[in-house]
Amino acid sequence: MAGSTRASASRSRRSAPRGTRGRSTAKRRFWDYPRSGYHGLHRWLPSWRFLLGSFLGFGFLLAGAVVAAYATIELPDPSEDISAQTTTVYYADGDVMGTYAVQKRELVDFADLPKYVGNAVVAAEDRTFWSNSGISVTGMARAFINNVRGGQKQGGSTLTQQYVERYYVNSTTTDYLGKAKEALLALKVNKQQEKPEILGNYLNTIYFGRDTYGIQAASQAYFGHDAKDMTVSEAAMIAAIIPAPNAWDPAVAPDKAEARWKIVVDRMLEDGWITQAQHDEAAFPTTVKYVRSTKYEGPQGHLLKMVEDEMASADRGINVSKEKLDRGGFKVYTTIQKPVQDELDSAVAELLKGELTDGEKPSKNMKVAVSSVDPATGGIVALYGGPDFLEDQVNRATYGDGVQAGSTFKPFTLVAALQQGIGLDTTYKGYSPMDVDGWDTSGGDDQVTNFDGESFGTIDLVDATAKSVNTVYAQLNLEVGAKETARVATEAGVTTPVDEYPSNVLGSTSVHPLDMANAYATFAAQGVRHDAHIVEKVLNPDGSTFFETDGNPDRVFDADVMADATYAMTQVVERGSGEPFIKPIGVPIAGKTGTSTGNLSAWFVGYTPTIATSVALSQVGSDGSSQVTITPVGPSPYGGELTQVTGASIPANLWATYMTPVLAMDQFAKVREFPERANVGEDTKPTWTPKPTQSPTNEPTTDPTQDPTEPSEARVPGRLVGRTQADAVAALLAVGLEPVIVSQPSDEVPAGRVISIDPRAGTALPVGSPVTLVISSGPEAPPDPEPTQTPGPKPTKDPGTDPTGKPDGGDG
Questions:
Q1: Residue 538: other Cβ atoms inside 10 A
Q2: Which of 280, 417, 642, 754 is the most buried (most CB within 10 A)?
């Protein structure tokens, strides 16, 4: 009996469902979680019924929400062309420079187009267009999964969604909520409009590149005829470049355009839009030359293109695309000052017509680049990149790798030396040719020569700068380090890569003329560098500020270093290669000429405290790109016929012609004087001894073996005004000059202190020369004081200048 009972119980347990074994038979709770009757992990896992019910419930709720959203959403008014606003570009004074119009568009009736025109777009953009509901669930899901995985962002949009985005939303949608709303609008559009209407509006709406919107304007821009006359191949090419029309324009990327075109033609055959014969006959079409609107005509076109590029630059913090610029209604205020720009354009026109070269026109292949920068802000005051942007879209002031800088790079080495305490009075031997150990790092010839082979004796860095002595600067660059020269150039504002070979001091690096103007503007700003820029401020259509810049000022050099570098560069104008054309302007100017090997480029870069300007000439060969020797034209600055174009000739002449009226303008005349020479460093001994393995070709002006510890010249010390008589006398005696005291009453300067000195600070004089110190006798001094000592004679001419006025050396 007992056995029978056990067997019955066993059968009862076996017949019970596995999941219920051991569970209590108590009445279930309404919310049975954690699950009763289970043990361990099963107690916490929801049942499959619960999961299925939750999924279905959520799905019904979501579907209900979508249905409700679809029922309530209304199509907005179409975005008509008139809703887009024109962006206006202004000169700094508020005059209009130009405009960016929205849409070059001409509407066409879809029924007038060959069917393959629309179907080419369908094949390229949405192969299910004619049958889908306006959205592609699989496409959106695929794009969502790709985006979540971190792949290249995709949109999954159908042609109808793209149409909604452009025709109704009028902006690029990137967030998921916006995409969801766009999808609902696409569903509603698909319900309310016929497919041909949708496709026709799409073709009349979207951007096709070459500043065109709509299929008609695009056909004219690419093929020179109406859209109704497009061939199968032309329709396929237009459709192929829709995703990136500017980048895939056949004139820009022919290989990419043709590859995309082939894909579209093949799809048109696969989908039945063209016959096998049409497919086989198709050939990649030829496009017409793209002619931009006349707003880009003339030199001004380069300025407008620079504005366009800077507005699109993320680096500048603006990041406004061309399409947004065309539609945005912005007010863009540039840094270009129209009166200055007019003077620049006029001066260059005179040069090109031969008016600066005695009626002889320069070669048509000569290229002119001029840039002017405001040292206080980095704003581009004026710029000349070429005579006509429509004819030559290469901006010579900013393009590519630029042109070789020549000796305009020497000031960067000078600054590096001053930073290391090597003062302007430091002397070096300057004969030519000279073997300089380490000059040729490849193990070749270490020989360095001066311009025209001219030799000098032992000279200081001021004379070496004024006369642009290559052999001195070669020694200096090896002493301070070519890497330091490269660093200074970059910190000053040069954006192209600077090589770190010793020859970089002689301008082996190619640079942008705009960069050189900005680098010298850093000198003019006493060591504060700004980003060179053309866009100063951008306003939204409502007048609020969209963007504004102060040029991002950054002090990169010490003011005393800049004062000494500037002083040396003023001597280029006072008694060096810049003298014939620049000195007659009659205001303090610091600058440097530069000529590359073979006269492939010629420069003059100069500045005052209020403006820095670079002039660079180059010449292209018959192929339109290679650089060749600049053809000489006109008179030499020293008389006679010009035999080679150097920085002292045409570039300096153009600089003076342009800048003479500019420097008379009030905004540039407000500050004339540079800071006084600071006399950084005290070492006047030579710190480099070259190998005199070759005799100089010319007799040096001073014996190269002269002991430099006994200099024949001394410079009037700076910062003596306001000091006591005793201090000033001691400073003069310390450098080997003879003080001469003259008393003079003064109500402003206390008695016993220096009122003025003559000659002025920084003047080079033979050792033992007299220097007059005018000392205040105070307000109670007698009206006619007698000098305590008769001043000696003053030098009648600057040392280092021959009687003809021609500089003793340099690169011309």
A1: 22
A2: 417
Tell me, what's the pLDDT at 716? 82
Interatomic CA distance for residues 573 and 566, integer angstroms: 11
Per-residue pLDDT at 801: 33
**pLDDT value for 177:** 56
Contact yes or no for 593/604 (Cβ under 8 A)? yes
As a whole number of angstroms, the distance between CA 377 and CA 385 comes to 21
DSSP assignment of 535-579: EEEEE-TTS-EEEE-----EE-S-HHHHHHHHHHHHHHHHHSTTH
pLDDT at 40: 73
The pLDDT assigned to 56 comes to: 72
Helix (H, G, I), strand (E, B) or coil at 403: strand
75 touches 184 (CB < 8 A): no
The pLDDT, as a whole number, for residue 155 is 45
What confidence score (pLDDT) does residue 258 get?
A: 96
DSSP helix, strand, coil percent of the chain (3-state; round to 5): 40, 15, 45
Inter-residue contact 202 to 110 (CB < 8 Å):
no
Q: Which of 513, 511, 551, 516 is nearest to 534 (CA)?
A: 551
For residues 733-749, one letter each, b for 16 or more C-beta atoms within 10 angstroms of the residue's C-beta and e for the rest, the string is eebbbbbbbbbebbeeb
Specify the pLDDT at position 751.
Answer: 79
Q: Closest Cα to residue 381, out of 494, 517, 495? A: 517
What would you measure as the largest C-alpha separation in the chain, in angstroms? Answer: 154
Q: What is the DSSP string of 347-371?
A: HHHHHHTTTTTTTPPPPTTEEEEEE
Give the residues of the chain that fall short of pLDDT 70. 1-33, 35, 42-44, 47-51, 54-55, 57-84, 102-104, 136-156, 167-181, 184, 292-293, 443, 682-712, 719, 780-812
Strand partners, 383: 371
pLDDT value of position 589: 97
| CA-closest candidate to residue 317, choices 87, 515, 546 | 546
Token couple for 574: 């006072």
- Integer Cα distance of 257 and 238 in angstroms: 9
Q: Which residues pair with 368 in a beta bridge?
A: 617
Contact present, 326 and 105 (Cβ < 8 Å): no
pLDDT at 381: 98
- What are the phi and psi torsion angles at 404 (to 5°)? -60, 140
Helix, coil or strand: residue 68: helix
Single-letter amino acid, residue 619: Q
Please give the C-alpha separations between residue 124 and each of 34, 158, 246, 253, 263, in angstroms, as whole numbers: 56, 11, 17, 18, 8
Q: Rounded to an integer, what distance in angstroms lies between the CA atom of residue 53 and that of residue 2?
A: 47
